[in-house]
Write a structure and sequence with these properties.
The complex is a heterodimer.
Chain A lengths: L1 H19 L20 E4 L5 E6 L5 E8 L12 H9 L8 H10 L3 E5 L2 E7 L3 H13 L5 H18 L3 H14 L11 H6 L2 H11 L5 E7 L3 H12 L22 E6 L5 E10 L8 H11 L7 H9 L3 E9 L5 E10 L3 H17 L4 H18 L3 H13 L10 H6 L3 H11 L6 E6 L1 H7 L9 E4 L17 H12 L2 H6 L2 E10 L2 E10 L3 E8 L2 E8 L4 E5 L2 E4 L2 H11 L7 H4 L2 E10 L2 E9 L5 E7 L5 E8 L2 E13 L2 E11 L2 E12 L11
Helix pairs in contact in A: 2-8, 10-16, 11-12, 12-16
Chain B lengths: L27 E4 L5 E6 L5 E8 L13 H8 L12 H7 L3 E6 L4 E8 L3 H14 L4 H20 L6 H9 L13 H6 L2 H11 L5 E7 L3 H12 L23 E7 L5 E7 L6 H14 L5 H9 L3 E8 L7 E8 L5 H17 L4 H18 L3 H15 L4 H10 L3 H11 L5 E8 L5
Parallel strand pairs in B: 2-6, 7-11
Antiparallel strand pairs in B: 1-2, 3-5, 3-6, 4-5, 8-10, 8-11, 9-10
The chains are: A alpha+beta, B alpha+beta.
């Protein structure tokens, strides 16, 4: 009976709770849960290898991470060899081929990664011995197979080809070179050329010098006891031999005196990447680290509600997300704020980004906001403890950066003490928009105009994928685009001879994916053209222009060209178009000097009456046209011309190279015939 | 393309090596009178709690002229509620020391908060407000339209291979709403009126179309009491919830096409029609995909990337769809190589799987990999909550988290050969060559 009354009471209570639920009131938290840092053990083997162990038995897995604590190195004309060495380690040992290593790792469902600064792996507890056996074999007995080096070079070069059209990669490269310069390890950009230069000896030397236990940590995390870890460390890494490892000090990069505006071009961009960055003396665990990271969290740390995101994403909808980061580093720390934004709003987004940075400096933050952010960081710290490797990372940082032993144990306490004044002090100390690099990558032509407002001296630097300046070198003030073209016409034979040419037949050959392709190009004054493409002697496509209309014929059918395409075809069809620029209303504008294959060339932009641009490059010494870049839709097509030979007193290029993106074709001219009296009927549609 | 698996875990013990105790992931569950299903999983190792709600609505519940709605809601649902002001939703969570996010698939939409465990009630308040009082108003709709359209540019238009999913689906499906992507068509979102969004909310964001999962450092008794407090008064939806019937016919003709993208390297993609997730054959298809492309010793990787150097990357991904879905095989050819050549090499490996039984050692490898994968996927409270929610949403059986591994281990080499023949047929697939725009004549 008593029980029944009790349950009725409970029922009433529940009902009344429901009936009275006032949803407008935010529920209060319960008493704060206690956060305990899991413990770790550290011991050192006789050969100097420091071992950190974190026990965690939630799931039956163990992670092993061998990590070298060494200075980065400048790699020079073989840039990339350090990272390739890391990859090579996994590609073969004295007793195992790469396939056998892969097979063995996959068989136990494990992972094994090698980098230039370490080896790591993760495995089900029951297979840990197997994994360690392979790890130590890879560490002690790498065989550096030559064919694997070639593969890695090829893959890396492919990777660069892919990255070249990626705005983020371009921005990141520009950022690194601008911030550090190319004499600093952080400012080196990998290039196809440097990858090709890499020698195996260089890789072996790196491995022999730097893979030494006295500069290494072994971090063991997971379903294992300290005693078992000790036994494993000794068994698998005890015989690793010590060595003398050189240190490499570097000068701290110079700060800009005023904002430095740098842009990059990405063909066909619908968005721009914007970035504000500069180097900082900011080491892991420095006395300001916690206060400064609170400041950055408010500004643009990972959260959606940070000020930068609230402004650029929520308020203005310029972007899907923009963030800032303060990056601690032993050598050079940095500040970076960036996002991918709408192309047309690039400068507005940059204004908003800089506004938020300046606001941090000039205004104290609201104390309520500060408490929110602190509580957020508090929670994030607590959540991070769920991952046992966090504790391992803490231990590693304490060791590596000589932090006080209780640095992380007292983290929350220190965090709770950060004040409004601290935040503003950190903003003043670490936010330096006046010394920043202001970077934007997108449609460079537009950026050139819109980004100039961020520069005090009106200077906008244009850099390429490699972070190299695109030279807009001084041009003699009296030289014009037309002068360059006149010189070109003179160089290939002179106007008089050119005007006597009535028709040209050019035969060319190229290879595409193993197939031989023949091209026959017939051109007749003033603007008739026929291009036939043959494969195995059969015509596979024909482009023809009768001077008024143009058509493309292919097995898929015939298509008459209209609009922009027709215009392009008509201009292509014009025999020696450079003779008739005035008549056709094409403007030739000298855009400066730029190197083409190491030789200085004049850059001339040709603009058709409809506004279409082509950029041609003329060698400054010979006057000959060496390169041309045309826009086709969202892609740019680059053609280079070389091996000029005389035919009937006029010079023609006998070697052509056309590239668009990663694809490039070498075209060899096999014959040029002039004034053979081609019939008009040839050019009928 | 991260492989998404909806697997559960049992810390399965195999006879050799060191043995651990088989650990069940424990949970309790109950229904509220309004149809909301609640699952509670206790784990006291770290003082945090995951509060999550999975709505059984994804892009497949959309109308063909209003694609992208489900994903749009994922954004809209952060605009606040009747009692939570605009832009405060995430701030409330963050200022409580928590984190939150959401994601949308073809079949469901998932919202979660990870909070310090003393903030459980906050999480329940937020999620119940989202279900009952979300602000579906013109200001929020306008803001999120801008954000979502930008997201599409970033994740589809401006990303290499960003459009390949869209191009594949629209060729693979003729009737089924899987024929569009979750991000959908930006024009549909632009054109949609506010009332349409309101109707979508009223149709799908209801307790009888959702499951609430509470996982972490909490007690079942407290969790149950609080779930009742915040969710009991949310009204049930009586009308039937729109779920499109599967009307896609079995394919007997290969679809083959070339598309052009803002990319530097071409890509080859094959998409095979496969059975729905959770079916016996789906487990076999997953293991077959693993055989083909999981790990460096997998067959496609070894043959195409390593030995022949035809490709720089390969992947095989069976999509875990509620209705019959697709298994994608994808390769990025090495510089200057022909797509047809890569495809021929891919085909050779598929044919091998169709004609030869997988050797015992290699099959054992697949089992070890599955075990590792399942153990790893269940390592956090958040992922356990997610898996429990999905298992309930799709199968009304949260306990699959503990039985899934046994379903993989029941697959035999004969099953692999059989599914290779049944589903990886030429006339049951879409083949796409994704080429750089520059190569378009």
């Amino acid at each position: 009976m008593k029980k029944l009354i009790y349950s009725i009471f409970i029922l009433l209570l529940t009902l009344s709770v429901n009936a009275q639920l006032d949803r407008s009131i935010r529920p209060n938290p319960g008493p704060a849960p206690k956060i305990q840092l899991a413990d770790y053990k550290l011991f050192t083997l006789e050969n100097g290898l420091k071992v950190i162990v974190v026990e965690n038995h939630k799931i039956p897995k163990i992670t092993y991470q061998l990590s070298l604590d060494i200075d980065p190195i400048v790699e020079g004309d073989q840039a990339g060899y350090v990272s390739i060495t890391g990859d090579l380690l996994r590609t073969g040992t004295k007793t195992k081929t790469k396939a056998e290593i892969d097979e063995a790792i996959d068989f136990i469902g494990a992972s094994l990664n090698t980098t230039s600064t370490g080896i790591s792996g993760s495995v089900l507890t029951k297979f840990s011995g197997t994994l360690l056996g392979i790890m130590s074999d890879v560490l002690f007995n790498p065989s550096f197979p030559a064919e694997e080096l070639e593969k890695l070079k090829k893959q890396n070069i492919s990777g660069i080809q892919m990255a070249k059209n990626d705005a983020k990669s371009i921005a990141s490269n520009i950022n690194s070179t601008v911030m550090f310069g190319n004499k600093h390890p952080y400012g080196e950009i990998n290039s196809e050329k440097a990858f090709e230069n890499i020698t195996m000896d260089k890789c072996k030397e790196y491995y022999k010098t730097y893979f030494r236990p006295n500069v290494a940590y072994l971090i063991i995390v997971g379903d294992i006891t300290v005693k078992e870890a000790q036994a494993q460390a000794n068994q698998y890494f005890g015989k690793w031999e010590k060595g003398v490892v050189p240190a490499h000090p570097y000068n701290f990069p110079e700060m800009n005196k005023s904002p430095r505006v740098v842009i990059g071009n990405r063909d066909g961009a619908v968005q721009s990447v914007i970035m504000v960055s500069y180097p900082l003396d900011f080491k892991t665990g420095n006395p300001d680290a916690i206060k400064a990271s609170v400041m950055n969290s408010i500004l643009g740390g990972g959260s959606l509600s940070s000020r930068i995101n609230a402004n650029l994403r929520e308020k203005k909808a310029y972007t899907y997300g923009a963030y800032s980061s303060l990056n601690p580093d032993k050598l050079v720390g940095s500040f970076n704020a960036s996002g991918e934004v709408k192309g047309e709003a690039t400068d507005s987004a940059m204004v908003a980004l800089l506004f938020e940075i300046n606001r941090m400096i000039s205004e104290p933050v609201d104390s309520k906001l500060l408490e929110q952010v602190k509580s957020r960081m508090n929670g994030s710290f607590a959540r991070s403890l769920e991952n046992p490797s966090t504790i391992a990372q803490f231990a590693l940082n304490i060791e590596k950066y000589k932090l006080p032993k209780d640095y992380y144990a007292t983290y929350l306490e220190k965090l709770s003490k950060v004040s409004v004044a601290d935040v503003q002090e950190m903003a003043k100390k670490y936010l330096k928009p006046e010394n920043a690099n202001i970077i934007a990558v997108g449609n460079a032509d537009k950026l050139q105009k819109t980004m100039v407002k961020f520069s005090n001296d009106g200077k906008v630097e244009l850099r390429d994928y490699y972070g190299n300046p695109v030279k807009a070198a001084e041009t003699p003030s009296n030289l014009t685009g037309m002068d360059v073209i006149s010189k070109y016409l003179e160089a290939i034979g002179g106007k008089e001879k050119l005007q006597k040419i009535n028709d040209i037949t050019t035969k060319m050959g190229m290879e595409m994916q193993g197939m031989k392709i023949e091209i026959i190009n017939k051109q007749k004054a003033p603007n008739k053209l026929k291009v036939e493409t043959l494969m195995g002697g059969n015509v596979v496509s024909t482009q023809v222009c009768n001077g008024v209309k143009a058509m493309v014929k292919s097995p898929q059918g015939n298509m008459e060209l209209t609009g922009e395409q027709l215009e392009e075809m008509l201009s292509q069809a014009t025999l020696n178009v450079e003779l008739y620029l005035d008549k056709l209303g094409i403007k030739a504008e000298l855009k400066g000097s730029e190197d083409v294959d190491g030789q200085p060339a004049w850059k001339v932009q040709m603009t058709s009456p409809s506004g279409k641009n082509t950029v041609d490059f003329y060698d400054q010494k010979s006057g000959l046209k060496v390169k041309s870049v045309a826009q086709q839709g969202q892609m740019s097509v680059t053609s280079t011309y070389s091996d000029y030979r005389p035919v009937e007193g006029v010079l023609f290029p006998f070697k052509l190279k056309q590239s668009a993106g990663p694809q490039s074709f070498d075209i060899i001219v096999s014959g040029v015939e002039v004034n053979k009296g081609i019939e008009d009927s040839v050019f009928e549609l | 393309m991260k492989k998404i698996l909806t697997l559960g875990i049992a810390f399965f013990v195999v006879a050799f090596g060191k043995t651990s105790l088989a650990t069940d992931i424990g949970f309790k569950e109950f229904d509220l009178p309004n149809g909301l299903h609640v699952i509670v999983h206790e784990d006291h190792s770290v003082p945090i709690v995951a509060v999550s709600v999975m709505y059984h609505v994804g892009s497949k519940n959309e109308q063909a002229d209003r694609t992208g709605f489900a994903h749009f809601f994922e954004h809209l649902m952060f605009e606040g509620t009747k009692y939570i002001e605009r832009f405060q939703y995430d701030k409330l969570v963050e200022s409580a020391g928590g984190t939150l996010n959401a994601n949308t698939s073809w079949d469901r939409t998932y919202y979660y908060e990870i909070l310090p465990s003393n903030q459980l009630e906050l999480g329940l308040w937020l999620e119940s407000e989202r279900m009952l009082h979300a602000r579906v108003d013109s200001i929020g709709i306008a803001t999120q339209k801008g954000v979502v359209i930008e997201e599409k540019k970033q994740s589809v238009d401006n990303r290499p291979y960003g459009s390949i999913m869209e191009e594949t689906l629209k060729r693979a499906y003729i009737n089924h709403p899987y024929r569009w992507t979750t991000i959908g068509n930006a024009d549909h979102i632009r054109a949609a009126k506010d009332e349409e969004f309101k109707k979508f909310y009223e149709s799908f964001y209801v307790p009888n179309n959702a499951v609430l999962v509470l996982a972490g450092d909490i007690s079942f008794v407290d969790a149950k009491k609080m779930a009742e407090k915040y969710f009991t008064d949310i009204p049930v939806k009586k009308e039937e919830i729109y779920r499109p019937a599967m009307t896609e016919e079995i394919k007997h003709t290969e679809v083959r096409d070339t598309i052009y993208d803002n990319i530097q390297l071409p890509a080859v993609l094959q998409a095979y029609h496969i059975p729905a997730m959770g079916s016996k054959d789906f487990y076999a298809v997953e293991m077959l995909s693993q055989l083909l492309a999981t790990g460096k010793s997998s067959r496609l990787y070894k043959s195409l990337v390593d030995e022949q150097q035809l490709a720089i990357q390969v992947a095989a991904i069976p999509f875990p769809f509620e209705d019959p879905g697709l298994a994608i095989i994808f390769a990025l050819p090495n510089m200057g190589l022909d797509c047809a050549k890569i495809e021929a090499a891919m085909q050779k490996e598929i044919e091998k799987a169709q004609t030869e039984l997988v050797p015992e050692m290699e099959f054992q490898k697949l089992k070890n990999q599955v075990e590792n994968q399942i153990v790893t996927e269940n390592s956090t409270i958040a992922s356990r909550a997610n898996i429990l929610a999905e298992n309930y949403t799709y199968f009304k059986d949260a306990n699959r988290i503990n039985t899934d591994l046994s379903k993989y281990l029941a697959v035999t080499p004969e099953d692999l050969k059989r599914v290779a023949n049944d589903y990886f047929r030429k006339d049951n697939r879409v083949v796409l060559y994704d080429l750089p725009k520059s190569s378009k004549k």
